[in-house]
Amino acid sequence: MKRKFKIDKNKVYQRIGQAVVYSSLYIASIVFCYWGFCQNTIY
């Protein structure tokens, strides 16, 4: 599967930026929920 296609660096950086933002939000929400659960369990 060798296809010649141009890689647009702007699109690549945009995709990477979106992936970083979404993954960081996802991890932050998991950590926040876990922290809240621990806080409720402890106290």
Features:
single chain; 1 helix; 79% helix
Description:
The chain has 43 residues and is mainly α. Helices cover 79% and strands 0% of the residues. The protein is built from one helix and no strands. It is rod-shaped. The N and C termini lie far apart (58 Å). The mean pLDDT is 86.
Which secondary-structure class do the elements indicate?
Answer: mainly alpha
* Helix and strand run: H
Low-confidence stretches: none
The number of E-state strands comes to 0
By DSSP (H or I, 4+ residues per run), the number of helices equals 1
Please report which band the strand proportion falls in: under 5%, 5-15%, 15-25%, 25-35%, 35-45% or over 45%. under 5%
Q: Level of helix content?
A: over 70%
Q: Specify the overall morphology.
A: rod-shaped
Largest sheet: none
Which value, in Å, is the CA radius of gyration?
19 Å
Ends distance? 58 Å
Let me know the average pLDDT.
Answer: 86
Give a brief outline of the structure.
With 43 residues, this protein is mostly helical.
Topology, please?
Elements: H1 9-42
